[in-house]
Design goal:
Length: about 160
């Protein structure tokens, strides 16, 4: 059985400035062997907050999830200690299972839209197999080996095709 993902506990330091995203600061103890002393080290994470239910000062538990954007890699799992309005007055924090189901539903809807668009376009849209050999197939026919992508090889391929 796989182990559960590592959860972190931190404080919300920035909320309401980005859509569905908050910045959470986590702390840990780091030992300096030269000074023989422990120091507090901080790390900030951009965290997905799908329902915008967090406020600055909240203590929250976060877990690594799927990558929502270039810098957002964590998801809020629960509010440990609220700061400001009570939890009953805020939108609920969705569970990981609910988020995974929502993501799967979005993926399926996108897949259906893509298939419908392909069927409407038909085989003559330039991506079908009726257009002749692809660049990879031509390259394999000319050289007789695997495709090598690069500017010089592509020019050589075009010159060899002109010679034939």
């Amino acid at each position: 059985m796989p182990s559960p993902p590592q959860t972190l506990c931190g404080t919300v330091i920035s909320a309401g400035k980005m859509m569905k995203t908050v910045k959470v600061r986590t702390t840990k103890q780091v030992y300096n062997s030269f000074l023989r002393k422990h120091f507090t080290a901080h790390q900030s994470h951009l965290v997905s907050d799908p329902n915008s239910s967090l406020r600055e000062g909240d203590v929250v538990r976060i877990a690594p999830g799927w990558r929502a954007s270039k810098h957002i890699r964590h998801v809020v799992t629960e509010i440990v200690a609220p700061w400001g309005p009570a939890l009953e007055e805020r939108p609920p924090v969705p569970s990981m299972a609910a988020l995974a189901e929502e993501r799967r539903a979005k993926h399926e809807a996108k897949r259906e839209r893509s298939l419908a668009a392909r069927q409407r376009a038909g085989p003559s849209d330039g991506h079908g197999s009726d257009e002749g050999p692809t660049l990879k197939e031509r390259h394999t026919d000319v050289i007789g080996g695997p495709e090598v992508v690069g500017g010089e090889e592509r020019v050589v391929l075009e010159k060899e095709m002109e010679v034939r």
